[in-house]
Amino acid sequence: MTIDEIPDGPITMTACKYHTQTDMESARLIGTRVIEGSEAVSLARQIKHGPPPDRRRRCPAPDTWEIWRIQQEGFPGILLLVELGGCAYVTDGNAERAIPDGARAGLVERF
C-alpha cells in the first residue's frame, strides 16, 4: 500500500515513537498513541493530499522518529516512517509527503 492509497472514511491510526542513540539498531520504543475519529480522518487526508517535503536543504538525521500505522476495516493497512524535526516528512518507502503542521513534533506526547 502507498500513501496515495490511504483510504477515505473512518480509520484508526497507531503512532509509535522511538529514540535512537547512534543507529536504527539502537532504537527503543518510548511511547504510543491511538488516534481515531475525525482527528485520524483529517490527518490521513492531509498526508494523502499533502505536498512533497522541501528537499532543498540538508537536515541531520533525527534521534526521535515515529511509525504510523493507518488501518481501516477491509483495508490491509499501511505503515509510514515519520522523520521528525526541521525536515519533518512521512514516507511509505516510495512516496514522501511533508508532515502537516500540527503533527510536525509527532503524534505521541513528548517524554
- From the alpha-carbon coordinates, what is the Rg to the nearest angstrom? 13 Å
Average pLDDT score:
85
Roughly how much helix do the residues carry, as a percent range? 10-25%
In the predicted model, the low-confidence regions spanning at least 5 consecutive residues are: none
Order of helices and strands: EEHEEEE
User: What's the β-strand tally?
Assistant: 6
CA-CA gap between termini = 31 Å
Based on helices, strands and strand pairing, what is the structural class? mainly beta
**Anisotropy-based shape:** globular
Task: Identify the strand order in the major beta sheet.
Answer: 2-1-3-4-5-6
The percent range for strand residues is 35-45%
What is the number of helical segments per DSSP (H or I, 4+ residues)?
Answer: 1
Biggest β-sheet strands, sense, barrel: 6 strands, antiparallel
What does this protein look like?
The protein has one helix at residues 37-48; strands at residues 12-19, 28-35, 64-72, 75-83, 89-91, 96-98. Strand 4 and strand 5 form a beta hairpin. It is mainly β and 111 residues long.
Name a few traits of the molecule.
6 strands; six-stranded antiparallel sheet; 111 residues; mainly beta; 11% helix
Question: What is the gist of this entry?
Answer:
The protein has 111 residues and is mainly beta. It has one helix spanning 37-48, and strands at residues 12-19, 28-35, 64-72, 75-83, 89-91, 96-98.
Write the layout of secondary structure elements.
Blueprint: E1 12-19, E2 28-35, H1 37-48, E3 64-72, E4 75-83, E5 89-91, E6 96-98
Antiparallel strand pairs: 1-2, 1-3, 3-4, 4-5, 5-6
